[in-house]
């Protein structure tokens, strides 16, 4: 797990990195101020950030907002490590994008437990993000295929209006497109040919044909053709 430690105090960074290594987190990076932290985050794509609040040039509040923006839709846990103890300052840590905080001097056991908890949350978030991407890809693929099929059917088949008044049908797919098909054509002897098909096999054909050619109306439920 890549952890970025941001603190302008060298001793504090040393203590945090040492604690992380004791917990088995060996992939750690250090930044002595906010500007360095942002540039480093662009390169390493951290999975968790331990962030000080009061720093020169760019304070922790601003850094947190910038880091969250860089992370995009992926959950990036930011835990503030601060000497501030007033309620207003701690509430501000959460308002700017922080997910948790620990006051200095920090308790190693509590901080390690918070890191593990946020690591689990990030893992679940990444899984949900990947699943949403797959669903979005599948939905876009289905929409594209439906447009292709609609285009093929609209341009590949011709309609002879001479006998359409004698043909009445209802085609109701269960989804956008399901492959149910009805074709009709005149026969050389003056009758009509019908072709009824289901090319997907995923649903029962919902079709009712009425054939009328110099005869009383006769309805043929599709079950009579199967």
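^ Assign residues to that structure.
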């Amino acid at each position: 797990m890549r952890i970025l430690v941001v603190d302008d105090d060298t001793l504090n960074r040393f203590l945090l990195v040492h604690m992380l290594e004791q917990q088995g987190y060996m992939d750690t990076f250090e930044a002595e101020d906010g500007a360095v932290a942002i540039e480093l985050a662009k390169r390493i794509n951290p999975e968790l950030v331990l962030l000080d609040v009061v720093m020169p040039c760019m304070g922790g509040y601003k850094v947190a907002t910038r880091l969250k923006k860089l992370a995009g839709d992926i959950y990036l846990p930011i835990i503030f490590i601060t000497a501030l103890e007033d309620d207003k300052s701690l509430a501000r840590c959460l308002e700017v994008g922080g997910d948790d905080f620990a006051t200095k001097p920090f308790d190693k056991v509590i901080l390690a437990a918070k890191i593990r908890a946020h690591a689990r949350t990030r893992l679940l978030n990444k899984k949900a993000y990947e699943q949403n991407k797959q669903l979005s890809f599948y939905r876009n693929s289905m929409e594209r295929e439906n447009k292709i099929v609609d285009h093929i059917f609209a341009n590949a088949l011709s309609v002879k209006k001479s006998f359409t008044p004698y043909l009445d049908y209802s085609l109701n797919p269960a989804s956008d497109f399901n492959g149910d098909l009805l074709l009709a054509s005149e026969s050389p002897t003056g009758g009509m040919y019908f072709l009824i098909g289901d090319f997907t096999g995923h649903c029962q054909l919902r079709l009712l044909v009425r054939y009328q050619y110099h005869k009383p109306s006769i309805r043929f439920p599709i079950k009579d053709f199967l």
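Strands lie at 3-6, 28-31, 48-52, 78-82, 100-103, 167-168, 180-186, 192-198, 208-211, 218-221.
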